[in-house]
Design goal:
Structural class: mainly beta
Mean pLDDT: 84
Strand content: over 45%
Distance between the termini: 35 Å
Order of helices and strands: HHEEEEEEEEEEE
Low-confidence stretches: 1-8
Number of strands: 11
Helix content: under 10%
Shape: globular
Length: 190
C-alpha cells in the first residue's frame, strides 16, 4: 500500500521518483531560464530559437543562424498563488525590450487522461511591454479582467531545483496557421 502512495506522488514524466516536498512547495520560488527551444511555424515559414542562460539564438529553415541576442527570462511563483514573468532582450541596434506579466496561478484539477497537478494554469492580470531606445523608454501596459488571457504550462519535470516546461499553442488568422512549441528548462535561485 505504501509503494502505491509514493508512486502516485509523481506527476510529470521526469519528476523525481520521490519527494518530501509537495508540488506547490517545489514550484514556489524564483526560476531562471538555463536552456530551451521554441519552434514556430507560420504558413510555410519555420523559425527556431535556442536559449541558454544568457542569450537567444534565432534560426530560420535553410538560412542557418539569423540573429543572436543577450536574453534573460525568469518566473516567480508565490505561495499566495500569484506569479510574475520577466524577459529582457538586448538587440544589436541598442534596442532593449523588457516584458513583464503578472497574475495568478493554480494547478490543473485533472480531467480525463490528465493527472491532477501536472499542469499550471496561469491567468494573466497585467502585461507590460517596455522598449528602450537611446535611453528613451516607451511602455505599453495591458490590464485584463476575468479570464481574458490564460496560459497553460505542462510540467515535464518539477524538482526542488529544476523546472522543465512544455507549451504548445496554435492560432489561425485569415487562413494562416501559426503553431508554436516551447521546451524550456529553469533552475531555482530561491
Amino acid at each position: 500500500m505504501a509503494v502505491l502512495t509514493i508512486l502516485s506522488c509523481r506527476k510529470g514524466p521526469e519528476d523525481p521518483f520521490i519527494s518530501l516536498l509537495s508540488r506547490k512547495s517545489r514550484l514556489v520560488g524564483k526560476w531562471k531560464l538555463v536552456e530551451g527551444r521554441d519552434t514556430s511555424t507560420n504558413g510555410s515559414t519555420s523559425r527556431f530559437v535556442d536559449y541558454n542562460s544568457t542569450s537567444m539564438i534565432e534560426y530560420s529553415l535553410g538560412a542557418g543562424i539569423v540573429n543572436s541576442y543577450p536574453y534573460e527570462e525568469t518566473w516567480t511563483f508565490n505561495k499566495n498563488s500569484t506569479f510574475s514573468y520577466y524577459t529582457k532582450t538586448q538587440y544589436p541596434s541598442g534596442r532593449i525590450e523588457e516584458q513583464t506579466a503578472n497574475g495568478t496561478w493554480d494547478f490543473n484539477s485533472g480531467y480525463g487522461d490528465e493527472k491532477k497537478k501536472e499542469k499550471v494554469i496561469l491567468t494573466v492580470t497585467e502585461y507590460i511591454d517596455a522598449v528602450t531606445i537611446n535611453s528613451s523608454t516607451n511602455a505599453v501596459s495591458y490590464k485584463y479582467s476575468t479570464n481574458d488571457e490564460v496560459m497553460t504550462l505542462d510540467l515535464v519535470r518539477l524538482s526542488n531545483n529544476e523546472l522543465k516546461i512544455y507549451d504548445l499553442s496554435s492560432s489561425s488568422t485569415l487562413g494562416w496557421s501559426d503553431i508554436s512549441i516551447s521546451h524550456k528548462t529553469f533552475k531555482s535561485y530561491k
